[in-house]
Amino acid sequence: MKLNAEQLARFDELGYVFIPECFSQKEVEALRQAASDVLNQQREEVWREKDGTPRTAFACHTYNEACELLVHDARLIEPLEQLFGERTYVHQFKINAKAAFTGDVWQWHQDFPTWHKDDGMPEPKAMNIAIFLDEVMPINGPLMIVPRSHRVGELESAHDLKTTSYPLWTPDNETVSRLVEKDGIIAPTGKAGGVLMFHANILHGSAGNITPYPRRIVYLTLSAVSNALTNPTRPDFIAHRDFTPVEKGASDALARYADEHLVSA
Ligand SMILES: O=C(O)CCC(=O)C(=O)O
């Protein structure tokens, strides 16, 4: 799947592209079952909120087949190859649960400062791709984005350890206010199966989820192969050390997996 001229122009101008209903309901259902499975595992890759609810399952493509198939999905790989002009490796893969009632905040941040300062990633030639596993609504902690903020480059930031997320490099409130005053905040919402791709320097964050509606999102981070990590300090389940280009799988691989494995409710 390639981005069209309008999507490319939109990405350049605003720093993100949203593709509603990119994955079918059958594929999403297979991924939802995968999410329930991995988030309930007791292992070092699964991090929890203060009350013990699962928050993030890292690297689950290494211990779940549906997640592994997703990593090789051309709908995710091709647009990034197109944007970077080269092949990509998997820098990170995770499922953020943002559980009903207890899913906690993600502070305002750009992704690149953390990748740069904690992992030694040379350039912002990497990107997060969000795949919605539940309907993302204005009320259940959607990802909020400051459009055009990718154009300001890497903001000054401090290491913030306040939430249950891994430590992030976050800008101060004055900086966030200044950028928001200029360009506002948007929150792409939509049905499960939607895909949101956003620039490594876009300012984003999300509020806590006090609704009864979970908001599970998969995040696949792909980086250009020329942009390998030079000094990773985080565990390799958070910042992978394998920089070989990710291969594209069969276009119907996830759908076939769903046909073979879906457990009906
Ligand atoms: O899931 C969210 O709400 C935010 C995740 C995020 O910002 C990140 O992984 O960098």
Describe this structure in words.
This protein has one domain: q2cbj1_9rhob like domain (Jelly Rolls, Sandwich). The chain is 27% helix and 22% strand. The chain contains 7 helices and 12 strands. It has helices at residues 5-14, 25-39, 65-71, 74-84, 111-119, 173-183, 253-261; strands at 16-19, 46-48, 54-58, 88-96, 106-109, 126-132, 144-146, 158-160, 168-170, 195-199, 203-206, 217-224. The strands form 3 sheets. A 7-stranded antiparallel beta sheet has the order 1-10-6-12-4-3-2. The chain has a 3-stranded antiparallel beta sheet with strand order 5-11-7. Strand 8 and strand 9 form a beta hairpin. The two termini are 32 Å apart. The mean pLDDT is 95. 2-oxoglutaric acid is lined by residues 96, 98, 106, 111, 143, 204, 206, 217, 219. 2-oxoglutaric acid binds next to strand 11 and strand 12.
How is the secondary structure organized here?
Blueprint: H1 5-14, E1 16-19, H2 25-39, E2 46-48, E3 54-58, H3 65-71, H4 74-84, E4 88-96, E5 106-109, H5 111-119, E6 126-132, E7 144-146, E8 158-160, E9 168-170, H6 173-183, E10 195-199, E11 203-206, E12 217-224, H7 253-261
Antiparallel strand pairs: 1-10, 2-3, 3-4, 4-12, 5-11, 6-10, 6-12, 7-11, 8-9
Helix pairs in contact: 2-7
Bound molecules: 2-oxoglutaric acid (AKG).
